[in-house]
């Protein structure tokens, strides 16, 4: 009988047909042409069994067994038409990738922290092995798609127990083989400072020309066995350095020659040892856990060498800073041609942090800066951050912000209405403005700070009689307690929409802070809806994602 021939019997499939259906279920082959007629016949037979059981209850046990066999055939045949069998391979690969990434991001996050079992599961890509057992097609995709095996995580704990070394080396070898020739993301970590396994480093070093992203979270001395790959890293684009201990100079020597490197994020413990890295070719640099007393050399060492148009992000947790000190905050003036400066604060001391910000703003000259972002990320602080107003004005003047600063984002800072208006007055080139109120928290000593006020909105409103602040504004983002007059807000928006030239659209985002929701005035809401329907305004009104 040919593959698509209709079986002679209309009802149950014979053993060969049963096996054929089961094999088809485990493959991606289309169902035979006879399958719909078989399904109809099986459905009819199921109905006949139901009738027989109603008429002859004394034979119920035997009939139930026979009906269950037919039901199993029926379900298998119907399964050949399941939508999931028609999902394109490319989409399944993306789904598998999301499963893997979701799993990998949770390892070590539980109460027990990092464990040998967890790291072995990560190295083995355990979710992919599970998916590979579903059917032949999934097995082929999960084990035969190199892009799914490109994350290679070598944690030193994998080699701490001699009983597991051989098995873990086999897991590493299998992952590298399954990754084919795909670019690799290689992570080398040693959270518990155990002795690294040099053969494992040797194995991943053989594939150094495929390294694209490199994550280093270990002692600098752990990297010394990698010295042989110096000059053999032609495709590294992203480098993460979170290392500690001695031997920084020798360890970083390995990563001097990276012709395609474009992004570095690092913890500045290495200090001046970082100078040997190729900063001039980078597009994006992130410095985490910066400490002024001890890491201050990072600013003059790195910033002047960054290329025109680069982005520099400086992240602080000022609660981790040294206690207040009499050491003067003084350093050399630093000029940099970066295009974007982002300063992030997760926690802060009300006395140390503003002084440190003043130092940074007083040190820098940024003649090509397009975007300045200052974000206090932890809204749980009792007090909003004290803005260094005079130093920002000085930075603006010597850097000529009036001609080229297009974006200003400042979140959760203390600044008076007069100071905010004065700052905006010296930034006529702004096109994008993001500011936030600071909500009062239910604890003693907390305060509120309202920046999005009627005073600000009136100053930003275009009128024929007088000039307004920020005349070329195209994007206005507010995180607010909604303490303003809705009609004043609408007048500001209307003036901006009407002032746009050509087919441009004004964009507004109005986010209410948690606990401060209210509905906008109905007339105001109706006018905004009309502007949106005319495609003259993009508008968002929702709760802020900050927490």
Automatic annotation (TrEMBL):
Name this polypeptide is given:
F-box domain-containing protein
Domain called F-box: residue spans: 85-153
Source species of the chain: Mycena albidolilacea
On the tree of life, the source organism's domain of life is: Eukaryota
InterPro entries reported in the protein's UniProt record: F-box-like_dom_sf, F-box_dom
